[in-house]
Amino acid sequence: MKKNLSAYCSFYGSKTTVVYLLVVLSVIALVSISLSPTTALGQERSRGAAEKAETKKTTAEKQSRGKRKGRRGRRGRGGPATVVVDPVIKGSQSETVLVYGRIVADQAGNVAARTRGAIGKVFVRVGDRVKKGQILATLITSMLEAERSLRSAEVRENKASIKRADAQLSLAQQELKRLERLRKSAAFSVARYDDKRREVERFRSAKAEAEAKADQAQAELRMADINLNNAKVQAPFSGVVTVLHVEVGNYVNVGANVATLVDDSSLEVEAEVPGNRVGGLDKGISVDVLPEFGKEFKASVRAVIPEENALSRTRLVRFIPAKNYDAGRVAANQSVRLRIPAGPTRVAVTVHKDAITVRRGKKVVFIVDQDKMTTVLREVKLGETFGSRFEVLKGLNPGDRVVVRGNERLRPNQKVRIQDSKRRGGSDRGQRRRGSRDRDINPTNQNKRDSNGEKSNRRKNREGSRS
Known about the structure:
The protein is built from six helices and 24 strands. By secondary structure, the protein is an alpha+beta fold.
């Protein structure tokens, strides 16, 4: 020890310095030993506080989920559910296929100018509704008026020619009669008598020619009057102006287009129907017409054109819309779809497509018990499709009232309250209110949705059990 101290002293300096260093090192070692238990204790306390906070958070989440479940349970057990029902009907049904067609106007075309001239005024604009005989435009008539005056003067001239020829003929006839009275006298001249006869014939021919020219001039005067009247371009039928082909100052010839009119009060539906489907379209048969916008309406067969398109193997069929269709929602050349009968008509029990729901892979409907006002879950077997209804092969009877709105969250034996579908604005409005469009009941897609929903529920249950 003395040797080590001596070595240290020799290296660092005096003994006092060495002793001071040893004391400092000892103090540092004691402080570190005293602080190490306190640090470990602080770490343990921080871990405990974190665990307590996590436990409180988990407990709060469980309580909130329990409250939500309680609220859902109270809401489900509150009052009766509001639903819309539709009856199961039995009647004549036929399978239909969709065929594309268009709206056509029975009267539509261009209004042409019947005489030549420059456009003086235009009295209509595109979109104006006009009546039969209403003036659409007028031509400048100064040239036509001058031409009429000329024809009128020719008529007067020919009338004067007729009068002159008539006077000459009368005078020649008188002279001929006087010569005839002198036939037995000595003063009678055969040559003069023959000359007077020829003169009478000449005056008769001149009178006939003057009369013919007068008739010609009169006809030309009538033509001038017609041209002057045709300077007013009139609507040949009532309709709407869709195109205006002229402006003020344009020069038009005979036959030039002035405006295009469409009579929207005589619209029809035209469709190219496959030849193998025409057999069921007898005259008067009613079909459903589905426009892109607006409500569907009925139309009856007016005529089947007896000519087939060799390329498409289709025939043109014209339909007359029913009187109660919404004419303001359709327009000429608008595309529509028609439900054409695909087979013979037969009696079937049908249910509305919105009443069908798929639960656990089975097609079911909810029937409303009118006495208890509760729902009954019934499995059904469906057949063919008839427009917006399905044929029911098994499970329902005619007259059963099934739920078509509000059946997504119904439970068996649940109390319900029936609401009138008219007050909800119709089925289309109800679908839009729920944010859905026209649905095609596809069991495959419905099974996928149900399986996805069950998977999500199982996932939520596992997460809840973990927590």
